[in-house]
Amino acid sequence: MTAAPALAGKKITLCVAGSIAAYKAVLLARRLLAEGAELDVSLTASARAFIGPATFSGLTGRPVLGEMFAPDQAGEPHVVLGKASDLVLVVPATADALARFAHGRADDFTSALVLCAACPVLAAPAMHPSMWANPATVRNLAMLATDGRIRLIGPVAGAVASGDIGMGRMAEPNTIFDAVLRTLTERQTLRGVRLLVTAGPTTEDIDPVRYVGNRSSGKMGFAVAERAAELGAQVTLIAGPVSLPTPPGVTRVDVQSAESLRNALWHVLGGDLGGTDALVMAAAVADYRPAAASLTKLRRSDAPLTLELVPNPDLLAEIGRARRRTRPVLVGFALGTEDDADAVVTARRKLADKRVDFVVSNHADESIGRDDIRAVLVGPSDEEHVPFGPKRALADRILARVGSELAARRA
Q1: Is-contact 281 330, C-beta < 8 A?
Q2: Where on the phi/psi map is residue 324: left (φ > 0), alpha (ψ -120 to 50), or beta?
Q3: Which residues are catalytic?
């Protein structure tokens, strides 16, 4: 007996914005159709400068949309599709499209459709790295993350149309398809949950070319962010300086120092901590920073060099003290070098001192830079030992406990 196509019966609307990456939307459309999806396509006015509507109408057998009120169409198709679609895809999503979504614009078909969509919305950003890093884009991404309605797939680092290399290249069609498949077929146990994850190290400048910091690959935090997005959560990932690609469906904010991480955290959390439902603090935040960073490179000499280090703020404790209600759920990490029994004692002390809900205790030799890990989830009166396995497996255990904590607060 032949299995049904993976997307049989799923109604998807594909919105194509004006980018040279628009040709990849054709490859994605073919894949979606091959897996049984019922596909409608919308082209923005600028997208039509890159690819013609005949290409998509030939593939789908349907007229291509794009005008708010075309003479030959009755009613409001953006409203109809917003209600009927199981998924809205924006591929590619330009800087302009993301800005429109962030500010609730509705003066073209795509932005109006996204604004009234009653289904998940996935967007695959594509733009020059300088546009991706521009403060205006960063602000728009933060607004989208706070709203939580649109999940981003990518971008990734690589060569863009100009030949420049950096973050902003659109995720490949197969990656986008995999995110679509997970969104529409995997049991979405965290759907609607707003999750904030920190990952990687922070670095504190000594001078323009040297720094102090912690050893961290970021793999654990990225695994949590990736699995949470796959389970339907609206995920914002604040990442220190690491070279890992952005997980599909995750909104990423890059930081460097503990102070920049602090600013990013509070921007997402909001003054009342109402901006997220749970925070998983997996970042290895530097405990100290130089009292004063030199603006020029410190030249080597035969004399000893003495650095005055001052404490960085304890970010998790700061958030724990500010929490007046039971939300957000707070998850800390305790990386140590002691034996298991002492590590659990340290984790439980950290749990109380920082006023968090549970702590993930792990050993430096069994975690830093590795793809696998062993850990203990330490609560106020319980311990869950997670044996050696992939970091994705530990991410699942962490997220299961976060889900349980949230369910208990709703009860």
Answers
A1: yes
A2: alpha
A3: 214
Q: Give the Cα separation of 351 and 52 in Å (integer).
A: 58
Nearest to 281 by CA among 364, 357, 366: 357
Cβ atoms of residues 205 and 211 within 8 Å: yes
| pLDDT tens readout for residues 137-196 | 988 888 887 777 788 888 888 888 888 888 889 989 988 998 888 888 766 788 889 999
Which residue range(s) make up the domain with 138?
A: 11-185
Phi and psi torsions of 83, nearest 5°: -85, -35
As a whole number, the mean pLDDT across the chain is 87
What is the distance, to the nearest Å, from the Cα of residue 119 to the centroid of all Cα atoms in its chain? 19
Q: Is residue 27 a part of any domain in this protein?
A: yes
> pLDDT by residue (tens digit) across 255-277?
999 999 999 999 999 988 989 99
My answer on whether 102 and 248 are in the same domain is no
Split into its structural domains, the chain has a count of 2
Nearest to 233 by CA among 180, 276, 262, 170: 276
Distance separating alpha carbons of residues 259 and 252, to the nearest angstrom: 17
pLDDT in tens, 320-342: 999 887 789 999 998 878 777 88
* SS (HEC) of 187-236: CCCCCCCEEEEEECECEEEEECCEEEECCCCCHHHHHHHHHHHHCCCEEE
Tell me, what CATH number does 264's domain have? 3.40.50.10300
Judge whether 270 lies within some domain.
yes
Residue 65 is classified by DSSP as B
* Angle 369-166-150 from CA coordinates, rounded to 5°: 85
The residues with which 234 forms a beta bridge, in sequence order, are: 194
Residue 303: how many other CB atoms lie within 10 Å: 6
- Give 45's DSSP letter: T
The answer on pLDDT for 19 being more than 70 is: yes
73 domain residue, yes or no: yes
Q: Which two tokens stand for residue 7?
A: 């997307």
3-state secondary structure of 11: strand
The answer to whether residue 301 is domain-embedded is no
- Maximum alpha-carbon separation in the chain: 82
- The CA distance from 211 to 203, in Å, is 6
pTM (global) more than 0.85 = no
pLDDT value at residue 72: 55
Contact in structure between 220 and 282 (CB atoms under 8 Å): yes
